[in-house]
Amino acid sequence: MRSLLFVLLLLPCSGFSKPIRYEISPLFRDGALCLQVRAWFEGDADGETELAIPYQFGGADRLFRCIQNLACTTSGCRLRMDSDTLFAIVEHTPGQELKLYYEIAQDFKGDHIPENNAFRPVLQPAYFHILGNSLFVAPKWSDSYDVTLEWRSFPPNWLLHNSFGSQSVSQHFSFPNLRWLESVFVGGDYRLHRTEVRGYPVWLAIRGNEWGFRDDSLLSMLQRTVTLQRDFWQDFEVPYYTVTLTPLAVRTAKSPGQVFVSTRISYLGTGLTNSFASFATPHKQLGVEDLYHLFHHELMHNWIGCKIRNGCSPNDMQLAWFSEGFTEYFALKNMLRGGFVTPDQYIDRLNERFFKGLYHSPKREASNGAVADSFFLDPEMERLPYLRGCVFAFFLDHAIKTGNGGQRNLHLLMLDMLEYYQRPDRDMRDNFDFFLDLCTEYLQKDAAPLYQKHILNGKLIPAEAFVLPPCLKMEVDAEGTPFFWLDKSMAGWEREMGE
Hints:
Layout: H1 2-10, E1 17-29, E2 32-42, E3 48-52, E4 67-72, E5 78-82, E6 87-91, E7 97-104, E8 122-124, E9 127-131, H2 132-135, E10 138-139, E11 144-151, E12 159-162, E13 165-166, E14 170-175, E15 184-188, E16 191-197, E17 200-206, H3 215-233, E18 241-247, E19 251-253, E20 259-261, E21 267-272, E22 275-280, H4 292-300, H5 320-337, H6 343-359, H7 368-374, H8 379-403, H9 410-421, H10 432-443, H11 448-456, E23 472-476, E24 482-486, H12 493-498
Parallel strand pairs: 1-11, 17-18, 18-22
Antiparallel strand pairs: 1-2, 2-7, 3-6, 3-10, 4-7, 5-6, 8-9, 9-15, 11-14, 12-13, 12-15, 16-17, 19-20, 21-22, 23-24
Helix pairs in contact: 3-4, 4-5, 5-8, 6-8, 7-8, 9-10
């Protein structure tokens, strides 16, 4: 509990903190698992309390289909709702104590988790995996949330763990807004391992036995990655952190009524509050090194997208070029810095994945608005923010270094962003001018036209616009795509690659 109490001191809350208590228990029905949830909180003073109903997280939509038997069981109250429009209001006596009851059920068939259902509630007789966005129906308050979670009647041999730590009975935390819903909850036959970074716990919750690596190897990689990234951000006072890894299966129909598990290896993840949830196809050929990129990317979201808040909902992709693209760039830079990839591998990944991926994409010059609108509908559009943002970050980084004689870089700019945006009353959506002004200061020229042209309008950065250090050489293919190679005969190439 010491770590939980410590985070309460770290989380600045604005306004009055209002308590809400949840009681969560299992319901085994006809061999299937559901979760029963009861919630207690005080209704609003005007006699109407609006509820936040699970709807969408990333590509997982209509999550309200996982909510069953939702009711306000307080005498005299009335629940009015239309799930298709996300409208839900409890009518009650002003300030009345309210009690909600509902059940969470898995809304897809089978015990294998296909990629497209990874972020939906998974409830199996032996375990559960659910994101907070799907687990909780919560009142929409402008005040801070003082949350108590009570776990009741679970099998005694089940592990219970989540983004807020391990507790078998009760948990308590405070949060200034509904961002606490961006969290992960697991229970059942997961294995829990703990390491520390400067005295603060880092947990790995993993299930399944068909991996091509040992748990302790993955835990060691996690510890190295967390240490490296916290050093990069000069931010070690993170009270706790959790990573979950759950087996992922791609189901392919052989014939009517038959299913087999594909041997294609896939993995994916999502960054959450003090945590990230990851999935991978269990396979003996899947090694720890295959998860380097996934872990570095998702851990980087603890700062880019979390502490440096973009202010957008998980389904608003207007700033995905930053939250995903800059995350890609600095994840790759940190992999190089920590020895997870060699300098040659770093350059090869930049060339093949990002520059070739962007400049050869059939949607390469789609506007940012078009990308945001089609992100969850078109796989080619979904890739663009990752590629475009990474290339833009590479461009800015080297332009800043050249313009400042190597004394400043994009890393230092990001530290300035962290200091500014980590305050709870600031985010990039509502305070975007700070980012542009900071880029202008570091570039020593107006950054707004660059942002307008290459991000909002989606125009490719021409090869001749890239400013490079002497150790990086550039070639251009017939389509105008820049490719880079490292000249190790140039003095200082090791320092340049290490920055």
